[in-house]
Amino acid sequence: MTTVTNAKDxxxxxxxxxxxxxxxxxxxxxxxxxxxxxxxxxxxxxxxxAGDFETLWADAPGLSPRDRRKGRMLGCQTRAHGDVxxxxxxxxxxxxxxxxQRQRLRLLETRDLTHDxxxxxxxxxxxxxxxxxxxxxxxxxxxxxxxxxxxxxxANDMGEWHFIIRRVPGGAATQVLFDELRxxxxxxxxxxxxxxxxxxxxxxxxxxxxxxxGFAPMLSVLRGASAQGMLDTRKACFLFGARNxxxxxxxxxxxxxxxFAGAGQFLPVVSEVVGGESWDGPTxxxxxxxxxxxxxxLADYEFYFAGPPPMSQAIQELLMIEHKVPFGQIHFDRFx
Length: 336
Fold this sequence. Notes:
Layout: E1 2-6, E2 12-15, H1 21-27, E3 45-55, H2 65-69, E4 73-74, E5 78-87, E6 101-112, E7 117-123, E8 135-139, E9 147-150, E10 160-166, H3 172-180, E11 186-193, E12 205-211, H4 215-227, E13 236-242, H5 251-255, H6 260-263, E14 264-270, H7 290-293, E15 301-306, H8 309-322, E16 330-331
Parallel strand pairs: 1-5, 12-13, 12-15, 13-14, 15-16
Antiparallel strand pairs: 1-2, 3-4, 3-5, 6-7, 6-11, 7-10, 8-9, 8-11
């Protein structure tokens, strides 16, 4: 075991030899800043102060050229050897409400939603404990490094963990998931992670915006809101950005959601209508339809969104800069 000390506040936690600094911090209940946990966002970057550090992914895109010149490292891609001292950002909002744990998941079944999106249902080793909107890191055979995938279901005593995943052309992880993994196969998993989870104490109406496989965490948020009775007193609006008409999904899942039929609105937006497709709904970028889809000022709502980085950035700027929505009402995790 290694002891890691944050020079900024003096907090100490232990890191097992086979863990990373970030995961060890969160398992200890320490709120080290993070978002994607997979090397892409840079939120967990820290300054090494003293000790021996091993970098697991030297080319991780989460570090900018300036970060590299300053010698910064990523907590999710760094392992300490022997006691070390670091300087990192931390806050109460990053303290995990459910501490992440490692476990094994067995594939139960799969179901196609579109031509390139599939639902994967796994069984774990005990109850599935997570908050709607969170994600898990999956370790797939033959794939270097963990991959982050969001839950599409809600916590349950049956120990089922559901994911909706889009096939990435040329992607090593989705090739294994879509083409090689079979019912009964077992993989490694670690979680839950993520800070963009359902705020059950908020009295505001709910707005979810998703692009592509960002549909999964937004479905989990709405399923959680339904299960907790939130849709009895709040309305919900779900805007889904699809590339083409054939990419639209979620109609059946939302129709089966208790409370959504009366309190919810589902608005698919197609970015481009290709030849042979019939579509009379909204087109363009999904965020450009946000303000017109809601009857009140945007600052009156609680927002959740997930999707490609350009979409997330555009939504964040729209909400915070153009419509002055308080940051505490905006919930998203960055993935790259």
